[in-house]
Structure formats: C-alpha cells, structure tokens
Design brief:
Radius of gyration: 15 Å
Pfam families: DUF6628 (PF20333)
Mean pLDDT: 92
Largest sheet: 2 strands, antiparallel
Strand content: under 5%
Order of helices and strands: HEHHHEHHH
InterPro entries: DUF6628
Number of domains: 1
Low-confidence stretches: none
Structural class: mainly alpha
Amino acid sequence: MPQQDHDIAEILPEAAPTCPNRQLLLFAIRRVAACGLNDAHATHAFFITFGRSFRRPLVLLRALMAEVSRVSRTKVMVAPCCCPRLTGAEANLLAIIADSNDRPRDSHDRLSAMLGVRDCLGALSSAQALALAFEDCGKPLTARFGD
C-alpha cells in the first residue's frame, strides 16, 4: 500500500463549527471556492437564511473570495462541503472574518500570513463588511452564539 503524504488529522485539524451562522458561512465559502462566484447552492442557502436581505452578505462573500483569490500567493486548502472537519485555512478564515471588526490589526496579520502577502487590506475590508452584514441581518458570527 502506498504511503500517505499527509495524515488526515494534519489536513483537517479542526472540528466543524457548532454555530449555525458559521456553518452557513463555511458552506458558502466551500461552494464558492469549488464552483465559482455564482454558485447557485451558496445563493440558495443565503436566500433561505436571510430572506429578501440575502444579496448584501452574498455579494460581500463573493467580493471576499475574489479578493482572496486575487492576492493570495499560497494555496488556500478548502475541504468538500460534506466534510465534518475544517482545514487549517478554513478555520483561520472563519476566525479572521468573525474577529475582523473587533481586532482588525490581528486579523490583518493572520490573513496576510495565510495568504503569503505583506498587505491585504482589500481582503480585510471585505471580511469586515461580510461580518457586519451577517450581524446586521441577525446572524452574528461571534463566539457567544455557540462556537
């Protein structure tokens, strides 16, 4: 049997979030990463969750994903939607988005390190706007709601 390059715990080190708002964000990130910015499943999930207010968080998620893709100098590993665990990059990105407004400097430093760039203010701004959109729509990404 061929030797595996990576242990599963190394590839998927984090448990999936328990917060339903973070679960939705994770699902949408995975769908957009795998299927493109106009993925219908991500759009439908946002429409079901946010109702008529779905456009703002969806457009901001698309902006964030486009900016991350544009500036990244490293590969950002994303697991399939059905995976019950998170890659390190997914866990980091969810935490960065959730913390982006409360700790912008720390979030920028972590996002820069993850993307392998010195400056990523566009991506940080998109993360901040996305977190605010979730909060404004009554779906905050903060840890106090179950994560």
